[in-house]
Structures are given as structure tokens and as C-alpha cells.
Amino acid sequence: MSHDFDPYNADRPLMLQCSCGRDHTVAEHQQEAAASQAAAELRTRSESSAFEAYSNAFIEATLVKALFPQDAVRRRFLRAVGKGAAMSAIASVLPVASLQAMAQEKGALEKKDLKIGFIPITCATPLIMAHPLGFYRKEGLNVEVVKTAGWALIRDKMLNKEYDATHFLSPMPLAISLGLGSNATPMNVATIQNTNGQAITLALKHKDKRDPKDWKGFKFAVPFDYSMHNFLLRYYVAEHGLNPDTDIQIRVVPPPEMVANLRAGNIDGFLGPDPFNQRAVYEEVGFIHVLTKELWNGHPCCAFGTSAEFIQKNPNTFAALYRSVLTAAAMARKPENRELIAKVIAPQAYLNQPEVVIQQVLTGKFADGLGSIRNVPDRADFDPMPWQSMAVWMLTQMQRWGYIKGDVNYKQIAEQVFLLTDARKHMKALDMKAPEGAYPKFKIMGREFDPAKAADYARSFPIRKAA
Ligand SMILES: [Zn+2]
Ligand SMILES: [Zn+2]
CA nearest 271: which of 347, 360, 169, 167? Predict the structure, then answer.
């Protein structure tokens, strides 16, 4: 018998090399082959002049929308100054208009070899897919996207500068900048990675407990304290009369461990990122109770960001990064690309999931674990706008649950961390009337949030942490 194989040894795995010469299973081989084929097709799509025009228009529209979230203001401004003047005014003040020009001129990159952290969840789709699709390379960057075990580790690797930029939960840069849970270090949200795309998943044995009033004593997992998951779960149960600090337990569990914990009965449910809600259905251990889209349609979740110091030291590199990620977001927003994207991000190096699970998340056609197939095309979306009112909402919830004590200068912090600010500042410097508009209102579970009345809002909830 050959020494290479020992099929009768119970203590050794029997590894048969794949015919391609690598140590992986046939299924993994097929998944990788499908991924590179899909990546090639998406690359072809991305190189078409139609996509380039679309992508540039997408980036420009994103920026104009950032300046004029209220369409009436945008139209008033255009009527007042005319299209040509408006375009040159916007080009002169927008960071990313100059970023676009910069990327086209291929301005000298201060740093080319970069490490970017990510957690293997569908929220990170644009940041991940930019790698196999060659969007970073196209900008002259040699990016390594590094799969990371949990959010505390992401924070620590940003603080010790092991990572140049990263996938964040969007409240994290606020928390780190405020020194909550770590030394205060200024961090920025450059773009929101994804909107919607989360769910409350419950163990199958709770099929008949769909009313949160029946959840007293339940144990829930969320990915991190400073996460939309934690804030939305707290908001949701409190709207149903439960106090999240005393009526249920909430514990932090890294997303890739959520399904195993549900199976083992350590938790009754989780408000987690996908693909783990869908994975729980696929494994037949849980069902999707509610999509977070149904609580707040368009809510932000994850972000792409880096430290203020990195941006100051490497403005051209940051510009190139920003453009790569926005290009990927432009691609990911198109429904016709979603099936191919699922193939590209499914393999072991990225999400390490069955393609069918990712497919259901990204296309929005999915089994809910209760016997129904649902069709929700915007179950997950990739709208990059870092609205500052989103940051203000997060701050009100941090106050509400005692993560922040005392008064908060909402606007100052939001504008310092969520990068829409510079444009407004420059417009004022140019004596242009900066549009009052980075603060659109939102509706969460039917209730309007007005960022102009944030302090009253934070105090208005009957269920909150006692001061
Ligand atoms: Zn192989
Ligand atoms: Zn997320």
C-alpha cells in the first residue's frame, strides 16, 4: 500500500488530491471554477462602455444626491444657477468629483500594497467582489482582502494599523471615534456598504411564538454591541413592550458561529447578517421571523471605512480605493448581476458558503423556513450614501441604551465621522449656499425620526436604560 494514503486509519482524514493537483474536494473545485467563470463574465460586463458610463453616472448621481437629498432643493439650485454652473460648482467642491478626476489621471499613489479586513457576510459584497473582479488592480492597487474572525478583531487591527481600511459595522467608527470600548481614535465611514440585508431568525421550535411578547427569557445573539443588529433588535422588542436589558438576554456572537449556536440550543434566535439567516433555513435549524427591511426599509448596516489619519496621509490611495468600492456597489445594485455575484463570493476564500444560500440572499427569492418561498428583490441592497442622519439615529440609540452617558453633540460627531461633510464646508467657503440636506428623515417601524429633534427623540421612548 502506498504511504501517501492510509484509508484504514480512523485518526487521519483521507485526503485524495483533486485532479487539478490541489488539496480540495470535487465540490470545492467546481465552486471555484464556477466562481472564476462568473467573475470573467462580470469583468466583461464591467469593461463595456455602457457599464463605465453607468458607473460614472452612478458615482456622480450618488454625489449630487449627497448634496441634495431633497429633490426640491436640487431642482431649485439647478434653476437658480443653471446646469453648467452647477456642474462646475459641484466638481469644484465634491471630494469625489476630484477623486474621479484623480483616478482617471492616475495621480501618484502614496501606498499600493494594502490590507483590507472583512467579515464573511453578504454585507461586504462590494468590498469583496472588487477583488476577484479586478477593480482594485484597475486603480493600481495591490489589495489583499483578509477574512477576519470577528468585529472586535477588526477594530483592533484598525487601531494597530495592521489593516489599511476595512469593512466596519456602520456604528463602529462612531464608537471608536468616541472612545467607546477602546481608545478614542478618529475613524471615518467613507461609504455605506449595504442597506437592509439582515433578519431576525428564530429556532424552529419557536415556530408558534411569532409574537415578541412571548419571548421573555429568550437568548439572542447579535454580532457586536455597536451594530445596527443590536440597535434594531432592541428597538423591535421594545416596541413590543419588552425591555431588552431585563426581559431577554442579548449576547455577542461572531456571525459565522450563529447557526451552530442556534442548533446547539445556546440561543433562541439572532438578529444577524446574511448569509446566516438563510444558512439557518438551509440547515433546517431556524426560520426567518422578520427581515430588518420590514422594520426600517433602507436602513444602513455595514460600512467601508478607514482612519482619518490614513486618509490624510494617503489621499490618492484613498481616492482609488473609494472609486473601486463604489464601482463594485454600482455593479452590485443591478439585479441582473446578482446571480453571478453570488457565484463569485461563495467560495472558501470569501464567504465559504453553498452558492444556493448566497443566491437566495442576493436575488431576494428565498425559502423562509416556514414552508413559503418569498420574493423580496431588495432584501439586500447596496446604496452607498453615508447619510449623517443615519449616524444621528445610531447616536440616539447608543444614548437610549446607556452606551453613551449624558448629552451628545449629534451633528458634530456625525459630520466628523460620516464623510459628507467636506463638500458642505467647501461650498460654504465658496459662498455657495450649502444645501441643508445631509439629514433626511427616516421611518422606523412606522415612527418618524427627525434628526433635528434627536435629543427629544432619544428621551421619548418609554423603554430605555434608566439614567
Ligand atoms: Zn481541483
Ligand atoms: Zn452588515
Answer: 169
